[in-house]
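Catalogue entry: protein

Sequence with per-residue tokens
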Amino acid sequence: MIKVRVPATSANIGPGFDALGVALSLYARVGFEETESGLVITGTPERYAGPDNLVYAAYRAAMERMGLEVKGVNINIE
């Protein structure tokens, strides 16, 4: 399992919002666990738990850039 923690922001509205997210110690935590097949995304509303999820798109892009096969994955978003 790989876990990533990034400062929470307000959708890049401006640098002040990003700094506020860091100052308040607000973080988005995402866990990735490779599986043989399929996609399971938890911690988000059902409408965002599909293949068009931006976290999943970033995962696929990173895997492809590293030349790794994209199999199944369980993603947990906090």
